[in-house]
Design goal:
InterPro entries: NAD(P)-bd_dom_sf, Sc_DH/Rdtase_CS, SDR_fam. This is SDR family oxidoreductase. Belongs to the short-chain dehydrogenases/reductases (SDR) family. The structure is a single chain. With about 290 residues, the protein is of the alpha/beta class. It has a single domain, classed as NAD(P)-binding Rossmann-like Domain (Rossmann fold), CATH 3.40.50. About 40% of the residues lie in helices and about 10% in strands. Strands 3-2-1-4-5-6-7 form a 7-stranded parallel sheet, with helices on both faces.
Length: about 290
Amino acid sequence: MSELEKQTKLSEGITPQIQNRQPGIESEMTPEPIYELESHVGSGKLKGRVALITGGDSGIGRAVAVGYAKEGADIAISYLDEHEDAEETKARIEQEGVKCTLHPGDIADEAFCFQVVDDVIKAHGKLNILVNNAARQEVKNGIEDISIEQFKHTFDVNFFSMVHFTKAALPHLNAGDSLIYTTSVNPYIGHDALIDYSSTKGAIVGFVRSVAKELAEKAIRVNGVAPGPIWTPLIPATMTEEMQESFGVATPLGRPGQPADLVEPYILLASEGSAYMTGQFIHVNGGQFMTT
C-alpha cells in the first residue's frame, strides 16, 4: 500500500470528536494527523537557514517545521500553550540534527510578537524564513451571531499578528530570504459559518500581494499557501460533529487533507526553487477551489 493510499484510509477512519478549547491538542486526536511522509528525504534545500514558524507545535505548522528540519534548517516555534505537542515536535526536529527553540505565548499581543523575533535572533543568530501560520476560528450560524469582540479577536490572532511578526522580522531579512503566509481556500469561495475567519484570510491575500511588491526590490520573496479542509487540531476544537462527518469528503479527491500534504509547497516557497515567485499562493485543497 502506497503512502497516499495509507493517508486516504486513515482519512476515512476519522470520526467526529470534540475538544473544548482552541487551538486544540494533536496528541488527543483520533486518528492523529499525518505530519510527515517516509518518502520525504531531505536534500539540504534549507541547510544553514533559520525558520520561525507560528503555530509550529501541531497541525500544518508541525508538518512544515519537521519538513524544514529534514531540509537542514534550524527551527524556532511560536505557539500558545500546548506544551506537550510542542515538546514532541521539538524532539522530532532535533532527531534531524538541527537546533529547535520553543517560544510560548499569545500572538494577539504585539509586544510578544516582537519579543519572539528578538529571542530568535539571540538564540539562532539570524532569521531567514518566517512562516506566519497560526490561526483561530469559531463556527457561527451567521453574521448576526458574531460579536464585534469576536471579529476583533480573530483579526488580532489571524491577521494583525502576521503584521507584527512581519515588521519585527524585516530588519533581519536579506536578499533571498522568504516570508510565507497561510491563508485558506475560504476567502476564494466563501464560508457562511466562518465569516470572520474567512475575512481575515482574505485580508492576508491582499497583504501578501502588496508587501510582495514593496519587498521585490530587496529580493525578499513574499508568498503564501491556501489550504482546504486539513485534519488538524483546530477541527475538533471548533467544528460540530455534524460538520466533521462531511469534512473534506465533497472535494474532488474525496477526503480531507493531511498536514503532510502541505509540506512540499512550503519547502518550495522557502527554497531557491521559488526564486522567481513572489506574491503567489499555492492552493492545496483537493480540488475544492474548482467545485464552488
